[in-house]
Amino acid sequence: MMLLRVLACLLSSFSFFEEAAGGGEKRFRDRHQRIGHFKKGDIIVVHAGAPQWFYNNADEDLVVVVLQDNVNNANQLDQNPRG
């Protein structure tokens, strides 16, 4: 689990490619799985490895503080944290 502390407003969503049925053709499909508006001071808990995209539509800078457990078994690549 990651704990995100939000210090400005933001909007989270993501989009992806999807294969067409039968043809193997890939096409862009814009799907917003989760869209949420957050305000200053909100705390968001995200599962480790979960895709998150943040869009700052506010007139001020967005500051996000991430607390992550790098010695957890979810960090399977190696013992070097990535930034």
UniProtKB/TrEMBL annotation:
<dbReference type="InterPro" id="IPR011051">
    <property type="entry name" value="RmlC_Cupin_sf"/>
</dbReference>
<dbReference type="InterPro" id="IPR006045">
    <property type="entry name" value="Cupin_1"/>
</dbReference>
<dbReference type="Pfam" id="PF00190">
    <property type="entry name" value="Cupin_1"/>
</dbReference>
<feature type="domain" description="Cupin type-1">
    <location>
        <begin position="28"/>
        <end position="76"/>
    </location>
</feature>
<dbReference type="InterPro" id="IPR014710">
    <property type="entry name" value="RmlC-like_jellyroll"/>
</dbReference>
<keyword id="KW-0732">Signal</keyword>
<protein>
    <submittedName>
        <fullName>Legumin B</fullName>
    </submittedName>
</protein>
<feature type="signal peptide">
    <location>
        <begin position="1"/>
        <end position="22"/>
    </location>
</feature>
